[in-house]
Amino acid sequence: MAEDEVPPATDTPAMDASPAIDLAETGASISLPLDPFLAFPGVDPAEISVLIVGGLGRGIALSAGVDNGDGTATLLAQDVSPEAGLRMRFPAGATGPHTFAITAISNDGHVKTGSLTMEPGLASVEDNLVFEVEAPVSLDEGRRAGFPLAIGFAAGLNRMVGDLELTLGGIPRAVHPTGGAPLGDGRWRLMDADLAGLSLVVPAGQGPFQATLIADARGQSGGRILVERRVLVGLAGRSVLDPAIGAAPPTQPEPPAAPPVVAARTAPLAPPPAPAPAAPPPMPDSPLYRHAR
């Protein structure tokens, strides 16, 4: 085994294009993550104050913003923040691509127009994406640790999914994956061949960090969604390969046995018997008195 080689993660889901459950056939509504800024490549979201999404047909709605009642919805900055998790909902049975006109109004009043295509069939990317980290293994006699990563799709991908790009991010400079191509800024592009046995090689003393995985999926008809997953690598508050990590918890000495408990008496002890009273002296007219006399 090479010095950077780490035992592969167990039960890693395969990244294949086998058919998955089509949500359009289950009777459930379909929800997709929506990033309206995909309609404006190169635009800084911080420069946009208002977005207007048009083309919202019957049964299609956004999870935030104001419905204008005319097939459009207005979004403000708080509606499109990463924390808001903006989504577009389609009715059950929705199929095929849907294109929406998007208008962006900048902070200084400039207007930009664009469009974004959404495909309900891309829901399988979000539903099945797996990104997990397993317990570390020691490398180089404890000088480094390998964290196996499980990346894949639990039930395959819908047949409508076309191109798919996976990007690993949030990786510190001292850390590197065992596969992938560096993109800079702690990001690595992953190909299908990189996923089998993929691990993060982390030097001893590295504090915990949050790794991200972004799946950029494009549909057969031009739709596009971004799906993000996050995992914590290492233990919060401890550096990697801390002696306490992976060690069995220290055994606590057993407490000394408690002294036997004496059962309380159910009734008080009887008092000692009182001494019998002394006999009175004989009276003068009694026979004993006369006999003594």
Q: In words, what does this structure look like?
A:
With 293 residues, the chain is mostly beta strands. 4% of the residues lie in helices and 35% in strands. The chain has 2 helices and 18 strands. The protein has helices at 123-128, 287-292, and strands spanning 30-33, 48-53, 61-62, 66-67, 73-76, 87-90, 98-106, 111-118, 129-133, 137-139, 144-153, 161-169, 176-177, 181-184, 187-190, 199-203, 209-219, 224-233. The strands form 4 sheets. It has a 5-stranded antiparallel beta sheet with strand order 4-5-2-7-8, with no helix packed on it. Strand 14 (181-184) and strand 15 (187-190) form a beta hairpin.
Give the SSE layout.
Elements: E1 30-33, E2 48-53, E3 61-62, E4 66-67, E5 73-76, E6 87-90, E7 98-106, E8 111-118, H1 123-128, E9 129-133, E10 137-139, E11 144-153, E12 161-169, E13 176-177, E14 181-184, E15 187-190, E16 199-203, E17 209-219, E18 224-233, H2 287-292
Antiparallel strand pairs: 1-6, 2-5, 2-7, 3-6, 4-5, 7-8, 9-11, 10-11, 11-16, 12-15, 12-17, 13-16, 14-15, 17-18
